[in-house]
Amino acid sequence: MSDLFINLTTPNGHSYQQPTGLFINNEFVRASSGQTITTLDPATEKEIATVEAASAEDVDTAVRAAKAAFKAPSWKKLPATERGRLLVRLSELIEEKKELFASIDAWDNGMIGKTYELAMEDDLPDTIGTFRYYGGWADKSFGQTIETSPEKFAYTLRQPFGVVGQIIPWNFPLAIFAWKVAPALAAGNTVVIKAAEQTPLSILVMATLIKKAGFPPGVVNILNGYGREAGAALTEHPLIDKVSFTGSTTTGAQIMKSAAGQLKEIVLETGGKSPLIVFNDADIDQAVKWSHAGIMSNQGQICTATSRIFVQRDIYDRFLALFKERVRTASIIGDQWSPNTFQGPQVTRAQYDRVMHYINVGKSEGATVETGGEAFAGPDGKGFFVKPTTFTNVNSSMKIYKEEIFGPVGLIIPFDEEEDAIELANDTLYGLGAAVFTMNLRRGHRVAAEIEAGTVWLNSSQDSDHRIPFGGYKTSGVGRELGQAGFDAYTQVKAVHVNMGNDL
Ligand code: NAD
């Protein structure tokens, strides 16, 4: 075993070899600068492992490898059906190791403040399903034939861009990896992807499966590294033809600027402050259940978390009482490994500090704390736990109303009429998700059409499916992932004009 693998055993008993290098050309290599990333279990604050962190020089090596792979016959001439077969094979290999993957991400993210159960039921099926789904798309992409005159016609080809640079966050490391890598490969691109520095482990195990599945060297290159150095070097690299980013709106704006010099194609999936509207004709028990899950699951670390809950005034008091009861009975805080745990730790101390800061700002702005409002003491006083927090008496000038907190902090706000609810829901710079609870079909569809968001849930929250396009309005993003839209985003259209006669 090379020194770029270490033996680890997860707290729930999976022993495995953890790669620690940068994955370039199907090999693990050391970082040129000697920089590293050390990752912690956020429930215990104990170190798990240290991995290599890419410098700008390493990014250059990876991009050049991806460029060479894009031009090589082993990828360029590979029939689309064979590309699809490789993706399906990868999905099978991931499935064989799904308990290990879920365990690593639960540990590292805890991660992600994520419980093992959530990783198993949500993140892994999404990851496996996405690779399988885009494996199916690879050979189902067609151009068009367009007649223009009796002697002329044109046809279109859908072609890959070349090398795609991809940057992902920590909150669903494997699923977001799949959302980006699977469609890019299905369309025939090659990839350099940078994981988030908070969760560097599972993606390196994924790298071993890329090789095992049979992808040629250089087709998928995987780097850990810091955003300002490795991330910036990737987005600025002249051989990168397209950038796809998921993370905060602030970083997304920087990436847009750095892509501007070369007019690079971009996809940005960024932040949110998503509304959830409960009308007085809703099934109130369902509305309470979904609105609790919509803001409190994954510790509130979901880009589409429905953090602003608007409730029609005549059912407001009843809803609030039921919501508080739901928090009391369902938001069980604990470590990642207990099946009873609903809420684990925030991913890092920085994220915990950020959430606690917002909670204190909310109090000082005069909002009323209905639940939580403070940290939760983990075992031995360790761990980045925050109690599920609910604020009322909130208004639209407050920071906690306007800004994304990315933690288990929900606001409950009354409204009077349907038009008021729509106005409140749209009163944000963001536009990622929105939920509407009503038993009135006409109203549900009417409001769904009026809300400025890339996704609207009628009588649910947070549903996500690799067959369905996903993305943001306003500052929540540019472009779409998943579904056919997600595949098309990794292709460009070429028009070929054909003259069969002698006319000009
Ligand atoms: P972040 O923007 O700080 O980091 C995300 C990624 O960008 C990381 O890999 C980081 O290393 C990299 N990065 C940081 N600075 C960079 C730079 N200057 N150039 C290039 N790359 C850089 O985001 P975060 O705080 O880690 O993640 C949480 C945010 O992600 C939240 O705002 C959340 O809403 C958003 N998010 C959005 C979606 C979506 O699909 N819309 C999904 C998950 C998370």
TrEMBL record:
GO terms for molecular function: aldehyde dehydrogenase (NAD+) activity. It is an enzyme of class 1 (oxidoreductase). PROSITE patterns: ALDEHYDE_DEHYDR_GLU. Its EC number is 1.2.1.3. Pfam families: Aldedh. Keywords: Oxidoreductase. SUPFAM superfamilies: ALDH-like. The active site is at 269. One of its GO terms (biological process) is polyamine catabolic process. The keyword Oxidoreductase applies. Residues 29-496 form the Aldehyde dehydrogenase domain. PANTHER family: 2-AMINOMUCONIC SEMIALDEHYDE DEHYDROGENASE, ALDEHYDE DEHYDROGENASE ALDH (AFU_ORTHOLOGUE AFUA_8G02310)-RELATED. Belongs to the aldehyde dehydrogenase family. This is aldehyde dehydrogenase (NAD(+)).
